[in-house]
Amino acid sequence: MMNIDRYINDGQDPKVVEKLLLKLQDMLATGEQVLYVAVQKMPAMTLFPDSIAMTDKRVFFCRSTKLGFATDFSMFSWSDVLDISFKEGILGAKWFLTSKEGDSLEMKHIPKSQARKLYQWGNEALEKRQVSETGGMEGPHLKIASVAEPDDPLSGKLKKLKLLFEQQLITQEEYENKKSELLSQL
To answer: Is this structure's pTM higher than 0.70?
Structure first.
């Protein structure tokens, strides 16, 4: 039996998580790691729950089919994800993913705590993607006004960097490293 303890901290069904992780093992890229698994829980008994698995590289929507003997997977790399969101209801939450291609997926009956964690992990993955796409200078959904004078682009970069740090979108270490790199260009 594999160690699934880190994936069942929020009330996930251990049998469903173990079964899903065994299937994902054959699908993960080298070095890809599962970060979080959320399992559907309906108000009445859930015989064949659907689930969402997040890795550092992708999101998997896992839908149980054929009375639980098979699973349909919808996979999206983080570079293909446009937005994630969720809406809490009385008994659970709906979790949404929208791809850059316009695909929109929804999973109902995710426990609220799991939906929040999916959202948290997902936003962290989107932030990392955004930072890598922009060379570390902007975070997701961040609108930075042009603050540089036309004759001093380095000053503008330093101001943007400071703003990213103040909004806690980059760490102190990232801030210091990038600042040193920019100042060495003087």
So the answer is: no
